[in-house]
Design goal:
Elements: E1 4-7, E2 10-12, E3 18-24, E4 33-39, E5 46-52, E6 57-59, E7 67-72, E8 77-82, E9 91-99, E10 103-106, E11 110-114
Parallel strand pairs: 2-11
Antiparallel strand pairs: 1-3, 3-8, 4-5, 4-9, 5-6, 7-8, 9-10, 9-11
Length: 116
């Protein structure tokens, strides 16, 4: 059982930045995929960014060039640096871990609100 704890959400003005962190309860070197998802009110949860154990990265088109995902294996932590935030980035952001073939784990979520 992998426990994931997100932090770093909050209220920020449009154009601002935030960095989200996801701390895992065990070594993340054994986790095949780690990613960030988000869910806005009335919408489905969607993938924001994902990074594999080998370092392959995938971004949603809506965040390319603005968000950067990274993982620090020594700290058992994954990050999401979010720059040039827009109101449409407002959502609850969830950390996700997948150990192939089927072990899925989710964090509790952290609220990000982009508003003036």
């Amino acid at each position: 059982q992998v426990q994931l704890v997100e932090s770093g959400g909050g209220l920020v003005q449009p154009g601002g930045s935030l960095r989200l962190s996801c701390a895992a309860s065990e070594s993340i070197t054994s986790i095949d995929y780690m990613g960030w998802y988000r869910q806005a009110p009335g919408k489905q949860r969607e993938l924001v960014a994902r990074i594999t154990s080998g370092g392959t990265i995938t971004y949603a088109d809506s965040v390319k060039g603005r968000f950067t995902i990274s993982r620090d294996n020594a700290e058992n932590t994954m990050y999401l640096q979010m720059n040039t935030l827009k109101p449409e980035d407002t959502a609850v952001y969830y950390c996700h871990a997948l150990l192939l073939p089927y072990r899925n784990y989710w964090g509790q979520g952290t609220q990000v609100t982009v508003s003036s």
